[in-house]
């Protein structure tokens, strides 16, 4: 029995699967540690096969040295794209960190092996909520769609212009901090005003020991107003998804 093999197709799919694998390992929600590595590998290979009609048309078979170099380049491209997406969605986790810090929850800090996050309650809660929203709303499909369109901009083995991704990373970091402050900002202002009010009360009536009431008061304010921040997370995740897709498509 003679089974013909299309080597060009196999090489192209292998290169695409390397880019997909590097992306899936780093980018949320696929990077969640509770997802087995075998499932991530199967997902990456399935995506590579799905985009094969787009990438195999103009692909030319490479020699051994060229193929190994192309594998390394695809690994770097997929890692860079995944890191850009990770930067965008780190804004939600950073907002939770800010709330934990100003609300006094940092004393209950712990390590979550599933998300690889070392943070307190709001940090982990916001991160898990963002992952759940990405999966339940289908936003991850937009991220995958943006990833597949990168093959039109960055052909297999084409590599990256390092200046442009570096600029996008700087922009992504600044947007991450800005988004974190915008998400947690109103609650941080309220907590700051509570601290200022307790300080003034201590100056007026030192015998009351107002700062002894500060910790339970800040916990109550954080739990009460934190629900309002949580209610805004669906819109936040939707905007972050658009930003992530824009960063992916902006890589050259």
TrEMBL record:
InterPro entries in UniProt: T3SS_IM_R
Query: What's the name of the protein?
Result: Flagellar biosynthetic protein FliR
Keyword field: Cell membrane, Cell projection, Cilium, Flagellum, Membrane, Transmembrane, Transmembrane helix
Gene Ontology annotations of biological process type: protein targeting
Q: What is the organism field in this record?
A: Glaciibacter psychrotolerans
- Membrane spanning segments where? 12-32, 39-55, 67-92, 125-148, 168-194, 215-233
Q: Does the keyword Transmembrane apply?
A: yes
Q: Which Pfam families is this protein grouped with?
A: Bac_export_1
Give the UniProt subcellular location, in the record's own words. Answer: Cell membrane
